[in-house]
Write a structure and sequence with these properties.
Keywords: Acyltransferase, Transferase. GO terms for molecular function: acyltransferase activity, transferring groups other than amino-acyl groups. This is Acetyl-CoA C-acetyltransferase. There is one protein chain. It contains 13 helices and 10 strands. By secondary structure, it is of the alpha/beta class. The protein starts with a strand and ends with a strand.
Length: 383
C-alpha cells in the first residue's frame, strides 16, 4: 500500500473577533494560506489534483464552494477543482483525512487540504439563524424523526460542556486553572518564537491575537456562568476567531516527481460518533478506537493536540484516556489561541507538525470534538 505524506503545513495568525483579520473576505483569507503553501513548497500548482477545504456557515463570503474560490483568488490554475467540507469544528481535519484517503487510494497524488473561517464577518451558527426565516428554528426541532429519537431537549455546546463537567466531576476551579495554563503556554510559545515558522504573515500581521497577558485566576473567578449553568464561563471556552491554514498531502510518486521533501507520514486516520446531545464527548471513544486500530498505547505519543472547545472536554478526555496533560496542547489551545471553526483542524495539524519536529519526537495524535457528537483522530509520524 502507498503512503500519504505531509510535505508542509502553514497557517495565518489567528485573529480575535473584530481584530486584524475581521475585514478580510473569507476567500482572500483562505487564498493567503494556499498561496503561502504553494510558495513554500515550490510545488507546481498545476499538478495539484484537488483542493479540499473545511468551512462552516457557508453563506455570504463563505458560500459558493469556498475551497474553489480561494484557490482561484490565490491566482492559481483554473483547471484545479475544489470542494468544501463541513464536519463542524472538525471540518479541516476531515479535509486532511479526505486528502490522505485520495492519495492512499491511488486516485490522487497531490492535494491541498485545509480550512478557513472568518467568524467576525459570518457569526457562528449564522446558517442556522438564516434558516429561521424559512421556518426552521434549529437544524433538529422540526424533524419528527429527531423528536422521536431524542425528544425536544436542548442540544447545545454549552449544555454539553456543563454536562461533561458534572459527569466527570470537573470543578469550575479545575477548568479555570486549565484555561489559565493555556494562556501561559500560548504566551510562552509566542515569546519564544515557536510559531514563527508556521505562520504566513498577513500584511505585516504575524502574531496570534487571542492570548490574554492580563488574565488571572481572580478575573476568571469573577465571570458569570453562561447558558444557565454553574461551571462554564467564557474564560473556559474557546474564542471566536478568524484564520486559515493549508496542508500539502502527497504520494510517494509525487514526492519523487516534484522533488518534494516530506516532513511526516499519515500513520492513521479515523472518525467516530457518540451521543449527539452530549455532543462534545466524541474524542474519548474516537481515541480508543484509533488506539485499537493501530495497536498503540497512549504512552506511545510525544504530543497531543486536543481542541480546547471547552476546558471540560480536554480534562474529561485526559481522565478517560490517561493522556499526560504535560504533552497535551503544549503551546496553548483554543481557549487562548482561538477556534476559527472551519480552520482549526488544519491549524492544529500545522502547530502539531512543527512542534513535533522542534522536540524531535516521533508520533503525535490530534483529535477534536465536533457537532453531532463526532470526533476525528489523526496520527502522524515525523520523518
Amino acid at each position: 500500500m502507498t503512503e500519504a505524506y505531509i510535505v508542509d503545513a502553514v497557517r495565518t495568525p489567528v485573529g480575535r473577533r473584530g481584530g486584524a483579520l475581521a475585514g478580510m473576505h473569507s476567500a482572500d483569507l483562505g487564498a493567503h494560506a494556499i498561496r503561502a503553501l504553494v510558495d513554500r513548497t515550490g510545488v507546481d500548482p498545476g499538478a495539484v489534483d484537488d483542493v479540499i477545504f473545511g468551512c462552516c456557515d457557508t453563506i455570504g463570503s463563505q458560500a459558493g464552494d469556498l475551497a474553489r474560490t480561494a484557490w482561484l483568488v490565490a491566482g492559481l490554475p483554473d483547471h484545479v477543482p475544489g470542494v468544501t467540507v463541513d464536519r463542524q469544528c472538525g471540518s479541516s481535519q476531515q479535509a486532511v483525512h479526505f486528502a490522505a484517503q485520495g492519495v492512499l487510494s491511488g486516485t490522487a497524488d497531490l492535494i491541498v487540504a485545509g480550512g478557513v473561517q472568518n467568524m467576525s464577518a459570518i457569526p457562528i451558527s449564522a446558517a442556522m439563524l438564516v434558516g429561521q426565516q424559512y421556518g426552521f428554528s434549529t437544524p433538529f426541532a422540526e424533524s419528527p424523526g429527531w423528536l422521536k429519537r431524542y425528544g425536544d431537549q436542548e442540544v447545545s455546546q454549552f449544555r454539553s460542556a456543563e454536562m461533561i463537567a458534572e459527569h466527570w466531576n470537573i470543578s469550575r476551579a479545575d477548568m479555570e486553572a486549565y484555561a489559565y495554563e493555556s494562556h501561559q503556554r500560548a504566551i510562552a510559545a509566542i515569546d519564544g518564537g515557536r510559531f514563527a515558522a508556521e505562520i504566513a504573515p498577513v500584511d505585516g500581521f504575524d502574531t496570534d491575537e487571542g492570548p490574554r497577558r492580563d488574565t488571572s485566576l481572580e478575573k476568571m473567578a469573577g465571570l458569570q456562568p453562561v447558558a444557565g449553568g454553574e461551571r462554564i464561563t467564557a474564560a473556559v471556552a474557546s474564542q471566536i476567531s478568524d484564520a486559515s491554514a493549508a496542508v500539502l498531502i502527497a504520494s510517494p510518486r509525487a514526492v519523487e516527481e516534484h522533488g518534494l521533501t516530506p516532513r511526516a507520514r499519515i500513520h492513521h486516520i479515523s472518525v467516530r460518533g457518540a451521543d449527539p446531545v452530549w455532543m462534545l464527548t466524541g474524542p474519548i471513544p474516537a481515541t480508543r478506537h484509533a488506539l485499537e486500530r493501530t495497536g498503540m498505547t497512549i504512552d506511545d505519543f510525544d504530543l497531543f493536540e486536543v481542541n480546547e472547545a471547552f476546558a471540560s472536554v480536554v480534562l474529561a478526555w485526559a481522565k478517560e484516556t490517561g493522556a499526560d496533560l504535560a504533552r497535551t496542547n503544549v503551546n496553548g489551545g483554543g481557549i487562548a489561541l482561538g477556534h476559527p471553526i472551519g480552520a482549526t483542524g488544519a491549524r492544529l495539524m500545522t502547530t502539531m507538525l512543527h512542534e513535533l519536529e522542534r522536540r524531535g519526537g516521533r508520533f503525535a495524535l490530534q483529535t477534536m470534538c465536533e457537532g453531532g457528537g463526532q470526533a476525528n483522530v489523526t496520527i502522524i509520524e515525523r520523518l
